[in-house]
Structure formats: structure tokens, C-alpha cells
Design a protein that fits this description.
mainly alpha
Length: 68
């Protein structure tokens, strides 16, 4: 299984896609490819953030004081 890119790498891909699309210099095919790459990275970054959030909630749950 291939290693998933880091969240920072995901954000870089998203930023590059946005910059390229905003510049307006791309042909339709290239613009679509950049859009798809950016959208894929958004989804992967969200999944990573969801996993990080779940881990943090789990850790916080371990530190919660016992109920009386």
C-alpha cells in the first residue's frame, strides 16, 4: 500500500491547483485535471483531519475524570 501524502503535501497540491486555475492560463483539459487533483487532495485532507480529530477525542476521553 502506498504511503499517503502528509496533510502539508495535501494543502500544497490544493494551493497549487487554486493558483493555476485562478491564473486562467490553462486549457480546458489541464484545468479539469488540476481541479480533479485539488478536489482529491481536499477529500484526503478532510479524511486525515477527521482521523486526527477522532484521535484527539479518544485521548481526551482517556483523561476524563471518572464519574461519581
Amino acid at each position: 500500500m502506498a504511503k499517503q501524502p502528509s496533510i502539508e503535501d495535501q494543502f500544497s497540491v490544493i494551493e497549487e491547483a487554486i493558483a493555476a486555475l485562478e491564473a486562467g492560463d490553462l486549457g480546458l483539459e489541464e484545468a479539469l485535471m488540476r481541479y480533479e487533483a485539488g478536489l482529491k487532495s481536499v477529500r484526503q485532507a478532510k479524511a486525515q483531519l477527521d482521523r486526527f480529530t477522532a484521535r484527539l477525542e479518544e485521548l481526551r476521553g482517556d483523561e476524563a475524570p471518572p464519574h461519581a
